[in-house]
Amino acid sequence: MVLRRTKQTGNGTGSGKRLAILSLAGILWVGPVIGGSGFTPFNWTGGSVASAASAVKLGEEILTSGAILMKYRYSTSSGTALADVVRVDLDNPNVKLDVMTGQGGQFTTRQSTEGMAEETGAVAGINGDYFNTSREGAPIGGQVSDGELMSTPSDLSGMYAFAVTKDGTPMVEQFTFEGSVTAEDGSSFELAGINKVAYTPESTGGTYSHSNAAYIYTSAWKALERPKNSSTTPTEVLVENGVVTQISANAALQVAVPENGYILRTHGKAADFVKQHLAVGQSITTDYKLRVKSSGKEVDPSTLQMMIGGHTILVNDGKASSFSRSVSSIGGTRARTALGYSKDNRYVYLIAVQKNSSSVGMSLNELQSFMTSIGVWKGLNLDGGGSTTLVTRDLGNTKPDLTFNTEYGTQQRSVVNGVGVYSEAPKGTLKGFTVGGSKTLLIGQTGSYTLKGYDTYYNPYNIGNTTVTWSSSNPAVVSASGGTVKGVKTGTATLTAKSGSATATMKVTVLGAEGISSLTAGSGTGSLSKGTTVSIPVTAKTTDGQSVSISADALKWEFIGFKGSVKGNELTVFSVDSGAEVGYAIGRYDGFSTVVTLTADGGSSMWEDFENAGYEVSFTTNAQGVTGAASITAGSGEKAGSKVLQLDYDMTGGSGKMYAYAELNGTSGKTIQSPATAISMDVLGDKSLNWLRAEITDADGDTVYVDLAKAIDWNGWKSLSADLSGLNIAYPAKLKRLYVVNVEEGQDERAKTGSVAVDNIALNAPGTISDNGLKTGTVQMSIGQKSMTVNSSKTAIDAAPITRNGSTYVPIKYILDAFGGQAQWNASAQRVTVIRGAVLMDLTVGEKQFVLNGKRMNADVAPLVLDGRTLVPLRLVSEQLGLTVKWEQKTKTVTIQS
Questions:
Q1: Distance (Å, rounded) from C-alpha 86 to C-alpha 822?
Q2: Residue 469 carries which DSSP code?
Q3: Tens of pLDDT, residues 704-730
Q4: Distance, CA of 428 to CA of 664 (rounded, Å)
Q5: Spatial separation of the C-alpha atoms in residues 384 and 749, rounded to whole Å
Q6: Whose CA is closest to 761, among 632, 865, 594, 571?
Q7: 66, 321 in Cβ contact below 8 A?
Q8: How far does Cα 295 stand from its chain's mean position?
């Protein structure tokens, strides 16, 4: 037969694959609802147990006719894991599965799973096969899309594939490839594969894959190099419509493969065959097939609806299977992607296990157990870790979106292929609506809500100018005017949209302070001067991990040290109070606070720009075999003309957890003299996906690790910042090193070589705000005594320090009098607000939680009221304010220093 490739259209393919290091026998693969008012689009089942195992179904949602999204909670040895499963009904003619491939349906054009799904019109999709990230971007395993063999299985044992025949029968098997090319004179030569990157086959004992071999490259392969780094010089033959049109001896043809043909890429003995039996103008034919390794059964690719490669088998006959090849390089507790089918061959399960702030992920063994518990009869492992991505289309929407955050947040890996779920249904009539909009509002926040229609096959339906009326079950909590909804007070109300006899509802919760974990107003800093305007858009992070953007003027603001106003998202300074050199804009939402600190220098000071660094920078590592260099050198690009700290590293010779350190000032580090609430710097990224950290040694000798980036996922310069408040750093401290981390878990996903650079390290440091009334010195207080010594001078106080359950409590007013700062008491809220430098703390009597610069924190002890006086935990407050506390047990004396 003549090889051909059908161009991708709306229901075609598109894909994504990422890097995952696989140890493949001696080689290292780096692979990286009208009338249905009672219908609920998402059916929450309230935690019904899916089986005797620990899988609990949380709910399910219809995606399209024949496909549903099911959500599970699963208990693992590490904690709670969440898994999302798309179940496809192969008996339903309105849905089908196919492989998505790169951009434009081609290899060597990696794309995110969401990008492939959107391009091909998929209702849902997951990432697919493993691939070698150092190569062009083609799958390791075989791939068939709509009967077209796009890639052949690699000669690697134990690598399973998932397939569905055109009559709707699923299978999980190991496949081999057999094929030949025949010249016009009848001579033939064996084909080694189709659209393969260079690799080392396991059956050849180390011989390169393309040595003495013939491979076919179709228009599914976009790159002009076929393949790169093959260690062989090719003789290539261009075939169009079954006729040889060009032959390039000992050189690659510098042409793209046409839609009506292919390139026969040969070397050695295969090239001799070309020289002896092929000529321009002559006809040439190909014949190929797949074979099931276990049974020997031949499989014509044209009889397959789809096939995608994977890794080890996980489930066989409804039980956990032994692994078909080593899984040491893909072990650990990770996000996971898998495929399987039911015992009756009716259902296919697309499985994606989350690993993020809500889920701990699963080991492969746990994944096996989970799969069997939800009904998988036979299944295999796909590429996981940071590649694990699931996208699904909500009812009424026209395209799929990320269903949950990946291991690296909302960023999706660019991968080579994936599995798409496609609707084959005709256009139906309007069945119902869904409401779109936020399910969470803050008090005073308004949100726009939309109504989307879906048809009898649960596919999007354009409702056009349909008249819709909106109402709220409790206007005192949520008010509704048209599609604009406003949070009035805390509570929950049901928002209802109605058109004719069709209705749709959504529960909307208005959050109070108890539902917020942090409030952030812009950068939190600004310049204290008349006429200054500071952008302070407010972001609230809820306790369940949502981020909600609200207008700053939805908060109640109070100003200390200046007069001003907040309108929209801007803070404007009208005038500065006499003698004030630091100002505070405190915004409160239902009692929860955020603060913007204004100083003459904008609240941030340059700590190191490397222009005149008079100390040594050196490279060190923790692992044998890791090499590199660290130096202060001339910057490039936007940093041309400046000096930067550059760190080069090569970890290819190391193993395990590997660090590459840029040490400052030998082993001594550079001093951070005063307390700092945040650190920021410009970083030149290498998109290695390694971590970037800083290591600080504080005045007590404790080591503090600061995560600057959990994944270096960018190229070029980028500004980073990290919060230092709440880390209990005792000052003066020393920044000892900046370093790149390649941890052992998920190591297959990160590059082992690279180069990063750092410039303009700045600190937000309350102790460095010039002349703002902060003082230094020593204070001593004794338990039970209504007096204190300030810099050797004794003074009376009206409330004595006490101890309770091993903690010392003091009236904070006197500490602030001695060291600068102020305290405010809100009797109705039983709240003490403490301000010093750039630190603002809200503490509530009887509550161990407190708010520090807009972030909810936890403490071991709570403020208390004694004899009408409010006392606060000394060590907690003092250390957050940049003070050091020492306790003398014998004399029951507390010494506080700044």
A1: 57
A2: E
A3: 999 999 889 899 999 998 878 667 788
A4: 67
A5: 10
A6: 632
A7: no
A8: 42
d(CA 199, CA 152): 13
d(CA 893, CA 886): 8
- Residue range 811-833, pLDDT digits in tens: 888 888 888 888 888 888 899 99
pLDDT at 8: 37
Q: Residue 524 corresponds to which tokens in the numbers above?
A: 């939190």
Task: Quickly list DSSP for 504-544.
Answer: EEEEEEEE-GGGEEEEEETTSEEE-STT-EEE--EEEEETT
| pLDDT band, very low/low/confident/very high, at 532 (cuts 50, 70, 90) | confident
Our CA dihedral for 566, 568, 570, 572, rounded to 10 degrees, sits at -40
- The phi and psi torsions of 880 (rounded to 5 degrees) equal -70, -25
**Three-class SS state of 366:** helix
Contact of 171 with 182, CB cutoff 8 Å: no
Tell me the residue type at 652: T
* Residue tagged 């202060």 (tokens): 632
- Do residues 346 and 91 make contact, with C-beta atoms less than 8 angstroms apart? yes
619, 630 Cβ separation under 8 angstroms: yes
Joined together, the tokens standing for residue 42 give: 């998402």
Type and span of the H or E element at 819: helix 812-819
What residues have CB less than 8 Å from 436, skipping those under 6 apart?
A: 396, 397, 449, 450, 451, 452
Half-sphere exposure of 108 (CA within 13 A, CB side): 18
Q: What is the pLDDT of residue 458?
A: 96
- Alpha-carbon distance 153 to 120, whole Å? 24
Scanning the structure block, which residue is given the tokens 């000394």?
874
Distance CA 731, CA 898 (A): 9
What tokens were used for 347?
């259902």
DSSP-assigned letter for residue 426: P
Average pLDDT, the chain: 88
- DSSP letters for 72-84: EEEEETTEEEEEE
For residues 485 and 477, the answer to whether their CB atoms sit within 8 Å is no
Tokens of 90: 């192969």
3-state class of 866 per DSSP? strand
**More confident: 172 or 720:** 172
Whether the ω angle into residue 732 lies within 30 degrees of 0, i.e. cis, is yes
For residue 869, give every residue at least 6 positions away whose Cβ sits within 8 Å of its Cβ, in sequence order, or none: 798, 799, 811
The tens digit of pLDDT for each residue in 276-285 reads 999 999 999 9
Residues in Cβ contact with 560 at an 8 Å cutoff, skipping those fewer than 6 apart: 583, 584, 586, 822, 835
427 φ, ψ (degrees, to nearest 5): -70, 130
Q: Which two tokens stand for residue 40?
A: 């609920």
**Paired strand residues for 67:** 64, 88
State yes or no: cis peptide before 227, omega within 30 of 0.
yes
- Whether residue 135 is predicted with pLDDT greater than 90 in this model: the reply is no
What's the number of CA atoms in the CB half-sphere (13 Å) around residue 543? 9
State the CB neighbour count (10 A cutoff) for residue 846.
9
What percentage of residues in the chain have a pLDDT greater than 70? 92
Give the model's pLDDT for residue 303.
Answer: 97
**Ordered alpha helix ranges (H), 666-747:** none
| Residue 385 DSSP code | G
Give whole-number Cα distances, 26 to 152, 312, 326, in Å: 21, 17, 12
For 200-251, give the DSSP string. --GGGTT--TTTT-EEEEETTB-SSSSSSS-SS--EEEEEETTEEEEEETTB
What are the beta bridge partners of residue 548?
A: 540
For residue 3 the two structure tokens come to: 């090889």
Quote the DSSP letter at residue 328: G
Higher pLDDT, 777 or 735: 735
Q: List for the chain the helix, strand, coil content (%; round to 5).
A: 10, 50, 45
Are 209 and 226 in contact by the 8 Å Cβ rule? The answer is no
